[in-house]
Amino acid sequence: MARVQVFPVVLLLVMVNVEAGHRLCNRPIGFCSIFQNCSITCRRAGYVRGVCQGIFPRRCICYKRCKP
Known about the structure:
Elements: H1 2-19, E1 24-31, H2 38-44, E2 49-53, E3 59-65
């Protein structure tokens, strides 16, 4: 169920960034649970956003703009 909810959000983020001319690179930084907010963790690490993805185990994936 969680996978179905995450996919549209990730797809929307990719579409917005492709239209803006920016490509995002991602990096898994660890495991997460429903109680951990990956977005805050990723911003503190210098990334622009983060998403908790997967079913088991769930991974915190951080995104930033790729260097040309």
